[in-house]
Amino acid sequence: MRGSRAQCWRGRFQGGGYRLTKPRELILDVLAKSKEHLSAEDIFLSVHKIYSNIGLTTVYRNLELLVEMGAVAKLHFGNGKASYEFSRDGEKDHHHHLVCRKCNKVIDYADFMKEEEEFLQKIEKGLSKKYKFEIQDHVIHFHGFCKSCQTS
Known about the structure:
The chain is an alpha+beta fold. It is 47% helix and 15% strand. The protein contains 6 helices and 5 strands, in the order H-H-H-H-E-E-E-E-H-E-H. The strands form 2 sheets. It has a 3-stranded mixed β-sheet, with no helix packed on it. A two-stranded antiparallel sheet has the order 1-2. The longest helix is centred in the C-terminal third of the chain and has 18 residues, at 114-131. 16% of the residues are buried.
């Protein structure tokens, strides 16, 4: 996490009264570079290769802080384990997930059709009005069977 992205997060940490410590920077870096949804254990193993002083408890504690700050998204796909992904703050990276019930494969789905975007905007507007609730974001997971599991 070099350059302007590190500076941006450093400013956010300082603004929240925190420091961008080496473990936090490495956790963010691992998640930013990953195309997968990683468990805390996956993140620990990746960071531990670079920074052997880190413990699994430190990874969990820092992940919770990063989720609270909005730097990381914590996702539950129904397999009993939380998964994490980097929140690309300010970038157009909104996506939904297709989750296979057999092999637990997760596919990021971001190529929305115009009709889908309009439909979701309509739903958000309707829910906001009905419940007098200011919606800031949403997470959608579609559960089913991936192509490989349909044939096996």
